[in-house]
Amino acid sequence: MKLPTAITLCEVGLRDGLQNEATILDTQSKITLTKEMIAAGLTVIELGSFMSPKAVPQMADTDALFLHFSDVKNVELRALVANKKGVERAVNCGCRKIKLNVSASLGHNLANINMTPEESVARFAESVELAEKSGIEVSGSISMPFGSPWEGSISLDAIQSIIDAYLKVGVKEISLSDASGMAVPNQVYTMCKHLQECYSDVKWWLHFHNTRGMAMANILAGMQAGITHFDSSLGGLGGCPFVPGAAGNVASEDVIHMLDEMNISTGIDLVQIISSAKKLQHWVGHETDSYVLKAGRSKDLVK
Q: Which of 156, 154, 157 is nearest to 144 (CA)?
């Protein structure tokens, strides 16, 4: 197997995980988790999103989190934004990295905002311009490129059209996000190989939900295709409000455990991450989709 020697993980539990929880975690608890994750070696963390507090009350304190961690160095703290107003909030609280998102589904876009995915990305131009003027880095995400509940499969041409739209507004870091949980390994491998060949100057991320138990296999396929940047979520928290039966993101501790056992470096202390994931599971008040939290590390079986 042709695999990388090291990969980078972005922890998305504080945003993609908690935004789907009925329990609204207080700001101090989020600060505690963030400090623990930084101490464990995570170098990329998605702290929250700059959405309407009325629409997403779980993310209402994102500004306060960025203000608290304004002096943190050597760790990329990023947030999801939807529009220029979100960028303005990012500027005001010292956020230095934002992520924009568009659905790859034409039907989903037309039903929700009456625009094509390409038109949605084109409207990001003013957000990108303000961010760059303010010294904020910008990345983009394409949700459901591996399939959607509306169209089923989505053509590679359609995905490349969205990528071209991102490049046109100046975004060269792009995440492929399997929010629908429909991706399968051979599809992931083929798409990632092709896109890297066509867009060699783009920095690629992969984001997998474990809706049908395929996330780990898809990460392995992505690594074999040469991808070295992946999202994951403490405890496997997460979901997708517009996808029937959607499960959470792949659990950070499961991914780190697999990579540790494969001697692929992450720079992250698994024992510390397990401790944080257990704490988060307790705070949200229910079991989460994490194998390692249930079974422990393989090496702990050996006495």
A: 154
